[in-house]
Specification:
Layout: H1 4-30, E1 35-40, H2 48-63, E2 68-73, H3 81-89, E3 94-99, H4 100-103, H5 122-129, H6 132-145, E4 147-163, E5 177-180, H7 184-192, E6 196-199, H8 205-210, E7 216-219, H9 221-226, E8 235-251, H10 252-256, H11 260-294, E9 298-300, H12 305-318, H13 322-331
Parallel strand pairs: 1-2, 1-3, 5-6, 5-7, 8-9
Antiparallel strand pairs: 3-8, 4-7, 4-8
Helix pairs in contact: 2-11, 7-12
């Protein structure tokens, strides 16, 4: 009669082996997959938005137990904005801080958000987010162009003209070459307000002013101090002609590949960080303005504001956005 121990071993060992293999397979299957988002922006490391992006990344990593990481790159370290957006469209795990002007290259009507004297406050931005028109545009960007808008409540504040000439009205800007980003609404806005637009990347503004390729720029105050542009500019003209609303975009393909819980966390923390960063921008603008004045920059507040507002309307006419503007004004109750 065979040894009973040998008989048991003959059947028990294979069974135990199968059990261990099965458990190991289940552990691998149940292991949390990790994701990485490389987030690019053109602003310098001392600007309030950079700190806001870092806080967004920190909160996302905390809430996902480190399974969704955001690596933040300032000063266009990953590349210029337009190139990054094209990489995003192809599905790359990259994010970009951008604006309605550049998104208008895909959905032309959305560029209206970047028009002269369009958005005036954070309340307007919040209302705009809830409009049927904006929801439709976001859907088109995601479905047709692969650009998922995570949120767009990052408001940099009011943009002004910064020049080496004293300006009080649109007529005074005639012949003044002003840097703009390379998008139609930017160029038409600057042209409507009286200046000659020159498309140029933000990182080239300092050398552009030094070489006299441009005579000025239109930016927010913290851009001027962060870029050291007070060294090559004499006047700040407080036109407040554009309240710049930033959109945070990622690849639709990459976003849809995240667990639904992670999608929600990415959106929620984007909105929270954007709200906080936007509230700090006004304070940062005041501090930057005071610093520039102490260094000798002349701030001009006595301008023909009504003339600038009326001139700005020509940008909407040039791009056939008058009806779009009126529709959105109606939707946000203005």
């Amino acid at each position: 009669m065979p040894d009973i121990t040998q008989a048991i071993s003959r059947y028990l060992v294979p069974a135990c082996t199968m059990f261990l293999v099965t458990v190991g397979t289940l552990e691998v299957a149940n292991a949390q997959e990790t994701y990485t988002l490389r987030f690019n922006h053109v602003l310098g490391p001392t600007e309030p938005f950079h700190d806001g992006f870092l806080k967004w990344a920190e909160r996302v990593e905390e809430r996902t137990d480190g399974n969704l990481k955001m690596e933040v790159f300032h000063s266009a370290q990953l590349g210029v904005e337009e190139d990054i957006i094209e990489q995003i469209r192809q599905g790359a795990n990259i994010g970009q801080n951008t604006d309605a002007a550049r998104l208008g290259n895909y959905v032309p009507e959305i560029a209206v958000v970047n028009g002269p004297y369009f958005i005036e406050s954070m309340q307007d931005v919040t209302k705009l987010n809830d409009t049927a028109t904006m929801q439709e545009w976001r859907e088109v960007l995601a479905q047709d162009y692969g650009l998922q808008v995570v949120c767009f409540n990052w408001v940099q504040g009011k943009r002004h003209f910064f020049t080496n000439e004293e300006i009080h009205s649109p007529a005074d800007l005639e012949g003044i070459r002003v840097r703009t980003p390379p998008a139609p609404i930017w160029q038409e806005s600057v042209r409507a307000l009286g200046a000659a637009p020159v498309a140029m990347d933000f990182g080239d503004v300092y050398t552009g002013l030094q070489s006299r390729a441009i005579d000025g720029a239109e930016l927010v105050y913290p851009n001027i101090t962060a870029g050291g542009l007070g060294e090559v500019l004499d006047y700040a003209i407080e036109t407040g002609h554009i309240t710049l609303v930033n959109f945070e975009v990622v690849s639709s393909r990459w976003f849809n590949g995240l667990p639904e819980e992670y999608q929600d966390i990415l959106v929620e923390e984007c909105r929270a960080a954007g709200q906080d960063a936007s509230s700090k921008m006004e304070e940062a603008a005041n501090e930057a303005k005071a610093e520039l004045e102490s260094e000798g920059m002349t701030v001009i507040t006595e301008i023909d504001r009504q003339a600038f507002r009326e001139a700005g309307q020509k940008a909407y006419e040039a791009l056939d956005l008058v009806e779009t503007k009126e529709q959105l004004m109606q939707e946000i109750g203005k």
